[in-house]
């Protein structure tokens, strides 16, 4: 299972990448593997300000649906439009082309409070 | 937890394994989509050894089967297979099953894994006044389904049985992969064509390995239960526990064609089913498609699209890999069963429109 060391994680299996003053957010390799074939990604919250742990959308896989949760409080400034046509990018490249949202965090220090790769690895065993 | 004799192959192949009906079963090997399309386009092998098999034979065998099933088993001759229902006294469905007519007044009933005990108890009770010989051979019987347009080509290399000459819902016994007395039937749960192969557990290694080897030439892959579900749903086949159960009637489920009220035998549930038919049914199982980006799941409410009043429930729903569309089935009040009717599906906070379509989807 792929758990890149440069990312931070949540117990709900989102990852966050620090990119200047923004965070790029998606779901982990573990999460996409558990969900299986993803057929829809729905993120109706562009330009919205949400709190940490709020739902920002959902992923619908053949087997099950799963909600997506904000790792930190912030504003969604971009949504990966590629996922509209190619939701399977989340399966094939969860940390790359399968990214989901770009967030401007309310408090940049919140990133540091997320799980690091070692802690997340322990969580998913 | 039980395992089938193929568990080590599933593990070696890297399958995701989940408990299902008391068995550790492979849910997926590569991906649902990949496995599904492999069956539609080439061929796939399914371990469905969890299914139950009962032998009914001797004096009273046909009488017992006529008593517990809704279809007319007297129409069968050796080598024929029939899809049937096992109704309860209220006209609900204890199980759906296949009835195999074998030589020498013997029959095999193939039932759902989750229902083996319930079915056997029910049939045993009905057998008290009939006294046919009834055996549960589920635990010692392995079952592999080889499905897809290239299944015949792959399997013909393993047997002298004339597979291409067999017709849908027939069966034959013969030597298969060197193993004598293997039962091969042209049946399945995918609508993709192909065969189901029954044999005793001790031949599991020989037969699995032979099919996997013979399958290489046609691109055969192992297929898990998840793709089995998407394959059957595209064809509108009912899944026991989802689309039909003890509380649903075969008439509501579109299984009137296997409910022979006029057969020359009394059967459990007959009076209730006659009464239902006379009174008319209040709901029917329909297929629907959703254009929106959402999948209807078992148990979601179906609604009137205008006032959102509940008109029924979703029984099965998925994303169809062949059609690339969200599809589902569910029971709705009869006023909403006409093709083209727009209904609502309550998917979490949203009420999404769906269109009633003719089954099967594919």
Give descriptors for this structure.
heterodimer, A: 125 residues, alpha+beta, OB fold (Dihydrolipoamide Acetyltransferase, E2P), 3-stranded antiparallel sheet, 18% helix, globular, B: 362 residues, Gyrase A, domain 2, Elongation Factor Tu (Ef-tu), domain 3, 6-stranded mixed sheet, 6-stranded antiparallel beta barrel, 8 helices, 34% strand
State the CATH architecture of the domain at 7-49 and 139-234 in chain B: 2-Layer Sandwich
The oligomerization state is: heterodimer
Q: How would you spell out the order of helices and strands of chain B?
A: EHEEHEEHEEEHEEHEEEHEHHEEEEEE
Proportion of helical residues of chain A: 10-25%
Task: Using the alpha-carbon principal axes, give the shape of chain A.
Answer: globular
Characterise the protein shown here.
- The complex is a heterodimer of chains A (125) and B (362).
- Chain A has 125 residues and is of the alpha+beta class.
- Chain A has a single domain (8-113), classed as RNA polymerase II/Efflux pump adaptor protein, barrel-sandwich hybrid domain (OB fold (Dihydrolipoamide Acetyltransferase, E2P), Beta Barrel).
- Chain A is 18% helix and 35% strand.
- Chain A starts with 7 loop residues before the first strand and ends with a helix.
- Chain B is α+β, with helices and mostly antiparallel strands.
- Among the domains of chain B are: 7-49 and 139-234, Gyrase A, domain 2 (2-Layer Sandwich); 282-357, Aminomethyltransferase beta-barrel domains (Elongation Factor Tu (Ef-tu), domain 3), CATH 2.40.30.110.
- Chain B contains eight helices and 20 strands.
- Chain B has helices at 7-12, 32-41, 61-68, 116-127, 151-156, 204-215, 225-234, 270-279; strands at residues 2-3, 16-20, 23-28, 44-47, 52-57, 81-87, 93-102, 106-111, 133-136, 141-147, 171-176, 179-185, 194-200, 221-222, 283-290, 301-303, 310-320, 325-333, 342-347, 350-357.
- Chain B has a six-stranded mixed sheet with strand order 11-12-13-10-4-14. In chain B, strands 15-18-17-16-19-20 form a six-stranded antiparallel beta barrel. In chain B, strands 6-7-8-5-9 form a five-stranded antiparallel sheet, with helices on one face.
- The two termini of chain B are 36 Å apart.
- Chain A binds chain B through residues 36-37, 39-40, 42, 60, 62-63, 65, 88, 91, and chain B through 28, 31-33, 226, 230, 293-295, 297, 318-319, 321, 326.
């Amino acid at each position: 299972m792929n758990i890149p060391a440069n990312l931070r994680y949540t117990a709900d299996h989102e990852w966050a990448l620090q990119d200047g003053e923004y965070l790029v957010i998606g779901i982990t390799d573990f999460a996409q593997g558990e969900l299986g074939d993803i057929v829809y990604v729905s993120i109706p919250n562009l330009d919205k300000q949400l709190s940490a742990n709020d739902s920002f959308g959902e992923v619908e896989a053949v087997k099950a649906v799963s909600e997506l949760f904000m790792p930190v409080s912030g504003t969604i400034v971009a949504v990966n439009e590629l996922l509209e046509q190619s939701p399977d990018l989340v399966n094939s490249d969860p940390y790359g082309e399968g990214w989901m949202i770009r967030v401007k965090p309310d408090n940049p220090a919140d990133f540091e409070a997320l799980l690091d790769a070692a802690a997340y690895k322990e969580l998913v065993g | 937890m039980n395992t089938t004799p193929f568990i080590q192959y599933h593990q070696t192949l890297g399958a995701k394994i989940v408990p299902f009906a008391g068995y550790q079963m492979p849910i997926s090997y590569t991906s649902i989509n990949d496995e599904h399309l492999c069956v539609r386009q080439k061929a796939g092998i399914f371990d469905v050894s969890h299914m139950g098999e009962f032998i009914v034979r001797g004096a009273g065998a046909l009488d017992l089967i006529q008593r517990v099933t809704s279809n007319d088993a007297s129409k069968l001759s050796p080598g024929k297979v029939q899809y049937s229902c096992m109704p309860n006294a209220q006209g609900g469905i204890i199980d759906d099953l296949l009835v195999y007519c074998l030589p020498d007044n013997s029959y095999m009933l193939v039932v759902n894994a989750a229902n083996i005990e319930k079915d056997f108890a029910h049939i045993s009770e009905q057998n008290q006044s009939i006294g046919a010989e009834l055996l549960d051979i589920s635990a010692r019987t392995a079952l592999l389904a080889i499905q897809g347009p290239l299944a015949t080509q792959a399997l013909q290399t393993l047997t002298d049985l004339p597979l291409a000459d067999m017709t849908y819902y027939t069966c034959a016994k013969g030597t298969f992969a060197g193993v004598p007395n293997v039962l091969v039937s042209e049946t399945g749960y995918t609508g993709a064509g192909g065969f189901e192969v029954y044999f005793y557990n001790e031949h599991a290694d020989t037969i699995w390995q032979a099919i996997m080897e013979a399958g290489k030439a046609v691109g055969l892959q192992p297929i898990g239960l998840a793709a089995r579900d998407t394959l059957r749903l595209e064809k509108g086949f009912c899944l026991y526990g989802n689309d039909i159960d003890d509380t649903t009637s075969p008439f509501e489920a579109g299984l009137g064609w296997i409910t022979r009220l006029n057969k020359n035998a009394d059967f459990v549930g007959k009076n209730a089913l006659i009464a239902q038919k006379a009174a008319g049914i209040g709901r029917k199982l329909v297929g629907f498609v959703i254009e929106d980006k959402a999948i209807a799941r078992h148990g979601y409410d179906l609604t009137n699209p205008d006032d959102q009043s509940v008109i029924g429930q979703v029984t099965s729903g998925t994303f169809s890999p062949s059609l690339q569309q969200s599809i589902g089935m569910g029971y709705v009040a009869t006023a909403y069963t006409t093709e083209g009717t727009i209904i609502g599906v309550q998917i979490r906070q949203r009420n999404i429109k769906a269109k009633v379509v003719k089954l099967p989807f594919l």
